[in-house]
Amino acid sequence: MNLHLKEFNIPEKILKWGDSQPAHQRQHIGTHIDCYNLSKIELPSEMDVRVIDVRNLDIIDINILDNISIKEDSFVIFRTGYLENYGYGSEEYFNSKLSPYLTNDLVDKLLDLNVKLIGIDLSGIQHGKHHVAIDKYVENKGTYVVENICNLDKVYSEFKADLKWFQLEGATAIKVQIETL
After folding, report:
1. What is the rounded average pLDDT for all residues in the chain?
2. pLDDT tens across 138-155, in order?
């Protein structure tokens, strides 16, 4: 099962934005890894994945990890239901004022647990002015944020995944393919 966006409708305003950007900046459209600090991503291609169901939560806090085991060097994905409910590119999907977000305490806990990737089925783990700041913070700790993950309603809460990506020089995002094994 693929967890990356393959086919989707992109609203005209996003296409216009993409067309106005250098080619490497268009990498922010679809499923991607953010790397605002331009770090060279070095991750294993095969990773343990844990999906945490956080549907119907507006604020995703540290207590969501109670009674959940997280493996070191793993990929933790938060399923908010936004992508499956609204569809990528919709106005509702990109409405950051209403979107759920991860608290700083939760992000710090995930970093303490040495996860390598923090994923979400949204356009970011935090929004507005906090979006880029939290991505840079996570990246400085050797972990990365993966955005716009799909098909979380079709997978188990734990599995292994194969990741493929190609990093363009100077890009602040990297298109990523995620396939369950």
Report:
1. 90
2. 999 999 999 999 999 999
Residue 158 lies in a domain: yes
pLDDT beyond 80 at 23? no
3-state helix, strand, coil in the chain (%, to 5): 25, 25, 50
**Encoded tokens for 57:** 């939560």
**Token code pair at residue 51:** 């999906």
Strand stretches in 54-143, DSSP E: 59-60, 75-79, 101-102, 117-120
* Residue 24 pLDDT grade (very low, low, confident, very high; cuts 50, 70, 90): low
Q: What proportion of the chain, given as a percentage, has pLDDT over 90?
A: 62
User: Looking at the chain, how many residues does it have?
Assistant: 181
**Residue 4 counted as domain residue:** no
Judge whether 159 lies within some domain. Answer: yes
> Model pTM greater than 0.85?
yes
Q: 42 lies in which domain range? A: 12-180
Q: Report the relative pairing of strands 32-34 and 144-147 from DSSP bridges.
A: antiparallel
CATH of the domain at 165: 3.50.30.50
**How many domains are there within the chain?**
1
Answer yes or no: is 34 within a domain.
yes
CA-based nearest residue to 110, from 150, 144, 82, 59: 144
